[in-house]
Design goal:
Helix Hairpins, 5 helices
Amino acid sequence: MTGNMIFTVIALLMLISLVALVTQKNLIKICIALSILGASVNFLLVALGYRSGGAVPIHYLAGDNKVMVLPTPQCLTLTAIVIALATTALMYSLIVMIYKHYGTIEIDKIRRLRG
């Protein structure tokens, strides 16, 4: 039961972020929902790469006969974290520019201001 609990938590995080993406009109809340979605995907990658009783994925520390945790999902997760940091910073800077230009960060009000 506890082995599948992590996947339930990941699915719950994904569901919360997707609901927030669809229902929210505030750009900051949408950006936060995208960050939560990215984090849940990273959790999923790490959870899929886990092996029960696995050793550190460094050959000289693990020994010859031990099963190691998969290092590829960990590398993908580290890369995804760096990319998510850059895109989140870009999204927040665009939100600041939208606020300076329109005076609001609500999507409905920005659409009405276009004319």
